[in-house]
Amino acid sequence: MNTPTSTGAPRRRTIDIVNAGLKKRRRAERRFRLYGMTAISMGLLFLLTLFGSIISKGYTAFWQHYMLIDVTLTPADIAPDGSRDPQVLAKANYMGLVKASLREMFPEVTGRRDKRRLYKLVSSGAASEVRKRVLEDPALIGKTVGFWVPTDDEVDLLLKGRVNTQLPESQRRVKDNVVAWVETLKQQGRIQKRFNTIFFTHGDSRNPEQAGILGAVSGSFLTLLVTLLLAFPIGVAAAVYLEEFAPRNWFTDLIEVNINNLAAVPSIVFGLLGLAVFLNFFHLPRSAPLVGGLVLTLMTLPTIIIASRAALKSVPPSIKEAALGVGASPMQAIYYHVLPLAMPGMLTGTIIGMAQALGESAPLLMIGMVAFIVDVPHGVFDPATVLPVQIYLWADSPERAFVERTSAAIIVLLAFLVTMNLLAVILRRRFERRW
Amino acid sequence: METTKTEVESADFENTHVEDAVEVPPSEDRVPRDHRETIGQLRVSDPRISCTDVNVYYGDKQAIYNVSLDLGKNEILAMIGPSGCGKSTFLRCLNRMNDTIDGCRVTGTINMDGLDINSKEIDVVPLRANVGMVFQKPNPFPKSIYENIAFGPRIHGLAKHKDELDEIVETSLKRAGLWNEVKDRLEQPGTGLSGGQQQRLCIARTIAVEPEVILMDEPCSALDPISTATVEDLMMELKEHYTIAIVTHSMQQAARVSQRTAYFHLGYLIEVGETGQIFRDPRHQLTEDYITGRFG
Fold this sequence. Notes:
Largest sheet of chain A: 3 strands, antiparallel
Number of helices of chain B: 11
Helix content of chain B: 25-40%
Largest interface: A-B, 21 and 29 residues
Strand order of the largest sheet of chain B: 1-11-10-4-9-8-7
Number of strands of chain B: 11
Shape of chain B: globular
Helix content of chain A: 55-70%
Oligomer: heterodimer
Distance between the termini of chain B: 13 Å
Number of helices of chain A: 18
Largest sheet of chain B: 7 strands, mixed
Radius of gyration of chain B: 20 Å
Strand content of chain A: 5-15%
Order of helices and strands of chain B: HEEEEHEEHEHHHHEHEHEEHH
CATH topology of the largest domain in chain A: MetI-like fold
Shape of chain A: extended
């Protein structure tokens, strides 16, 4: 639509030019939105695949099959001299008793190999379960007592339907006679599915059915406790000094550049540093949560300092000026007015740093937290491992039952991470103030 | 209209110590625009603060050139001038708030009670307790109304007991004309008040410390006319006890509240004089241009 102008030459109105180009603009906009949606869908797809794979592999680890065995606690086998001394009782051969009871249940089994397979129906932890009960109540000696003991990991997998019995016998670890025995036991009502408390109450073990994450969780907790106690005050103090007090000169610029750089340094480098400084120079104990915490402190400090400085920067300068204006010293102005306003941001940064530390494994490998540790650590000097390292160790184990436990441990780790990040969001919402 | 920098500096160099009023030219014949020496009555007989040759630099850039000016006792001194003329910068010299700005340097002497408050040896904490400041934008602490007032007295240890602190809070709010509006909600956040109330809260916070000088940096620029009138009434009352220096963009406000007015232009103090005279009969051409609205 060209309108003639006073000069006579056709002149296009702005609105016509805009209208002509409008279609192209709309298309570009739609295209851009499409890119965004594709990116989000891809992300969601990967996330769902990840969660789907982990949960489908791991959820069965939260259950464990138990088997009822009737153990005859013959006094001759436990304490021939009639003693009730716990030390004597503890030393008795309970495995022998368990084996005897299994033989009793399946008297038709003969031959060394078959017998060994029969004994492998129950977990090697069955003996210690029997011993525990006897030590608790010595009056049981002489009676035949029914014990619910965990089944062996292979049997457990079979019962969970994770063993393909259609395969030729030579290609699977669970042999035909074992399958038949388990079927018999099931019909006798001697098999029960229970919540896997062992997984949450035990430390690591070579036997999957005896392995738990309590050791790793305690190790992670102690390590993070050390990290938090060191990194939070140091990080906040450094941020406050750099942001509020430090003069701007080449030296503070250098510090700033270095802090930003350290945040991007591969974590294993911090592990090497910890190995060289804390273990080799200060001779701190190997595998200890204390050293792990120190290394992770070094690793998370840059994150906390950067987040805290950003939080301090976001406090309006008018608040500090107001405080200085009534004669507050810089420290009073910061302590009473700037810090409380910056705290939610600092806490968020700290929690994100902690979540990062919780998921870290590489630096801890360097300081020996990758050792096989059965005991649950009770202090920062006890040898320990942490959740991600435990996952790494289990993922590396040949026993098939560790596959589901690895996934289950990942689920636990993710649950902790989600909780921590949720806490960060809640803290930010809760303490955020408007001015 | 503008003079070159060289001319300006040479003009200053010849007469840096302007102690007495320059001879007053007849009102039809103003001092020409390129004249940068301060004219008018810049000294008073009984000064509370006396500034001599104050220069302020932001890095390499000079913001204020050789300002000499007295603040009289129980006087309201208004500072007017176009944006960026250095009046706020000068005001902030008087309680060393410029210290908080990186790269800001102040030279010259600012005499108060026989001490040069611009000297490095002066502790800014007692100085700021004695020279309070009200800022352009109301900036109450995001805490309760009570805490806003109580903060200053508390950090200075002005109240020994809770009762005394309560009393300080009450009298400060009363003097700021805010007591009747907030007495039932002292525990509510100060940020929840209206703009005018917030500014009066900030004034109450300043007077709670009982300073002897109050600096006000455009205290009414964010307020509506009614709140402005309240703040102005308050200033007239405060004048009985305090020395007040106010920076304002409103010439009407300067005319209403102040006894003396100082006109700043591009970092120079151009003219100082009794407010009536400045507005009725300015002696400098720049002052006249500004107050008659020819620029600014």
